[in-house]
Amino acid sequence: MIAATPEREEERVASSIVGRDEESMRRTTRLVIDLRARRPADRLELDVVERNFHRVVLIEASDDRKAWRWAGSCAISAVDTGSVRERLTSARFPEASARYLRLTIQNLDDRPLSVTGVRVFAVKRTLVFEAAPGRAYVLDYGNPSATAPRYDIARAMTYLEGQPLPVATLGGAQPVPRPPASAWLTSQPVVMWASMAMAVLALGSLLWRMARGVRAAD
Predict the structure, then answer these.
(1) Residues 94-149 pLDDT 10s
(2) Fewest CB within 10 angstroms: 29, 32, 74, 190, which?
């Protein structure tokens, strides 16, 4: 028996076009989309005025609009001949986490498309955790070196499907303050042991010089 594939549940990502550039020499149109925050996305929809077209779109991602990295490619098209009407302006691409997306539309010998809007989507994710009534919790996210935790509640998720659970609300996002130097050293064992070794060497050198001074006095 093959298990049914769960239906994709997605949510719309707040986004807007903040840059548009027509490059006649390269015969391309570039659109820069601002997602307002660094977050994952894997689907987009374009609002195109033209009724008949076919274009290849290259997708790049960036966090600062300076360094761009490859995110994927797709094709958009539309056919409207009266008897045949087909329109495909939605495209999926490998999930990318970034603040900005840049779309490069390959126009070739055709005129640039009139893109009037864009919508970006991502897979909807939820977080399930045990909470005590009346207590507040902090969600710390965005650490690229963090590893996936393993909790006992993961085994109970199968039995929680379909059951109504209390819903928590998130407050405003705030940057996490830098840890003090001592905490940082504790989290870096190599640096901590190197510092301790240097301290031991310095103490040994001091004791050796003191011993030589005592012998000279005698």
Answers:
(1) 999 999 999 999 999 999 999 999 999 999 887 787 788 888 888 887 776 778 77
(2) 190
Residues 101 and 187 grouped into a single domain = no
Amino acid at 164: P
One domain for residues 19 and 104: yes
pTM above 0.85, yes or no: no
Tell me the residue range of the domain where 187 lies: 182-217
Between the alpha carbon of residue 42 and those of residues 61, 91, 92, the distances in Å are 11, 9, 6
Contact 21, 29 (CB under 8 A): yes
Same domain, 117 and 186: no
Tell me the C-alpha distance between 30 and 81, whole Å.
Answer: 28
> Cβ distance 45 to 31 under 8 Å?
no
> Which residues sit opposite 91 in a β-bridge?
44
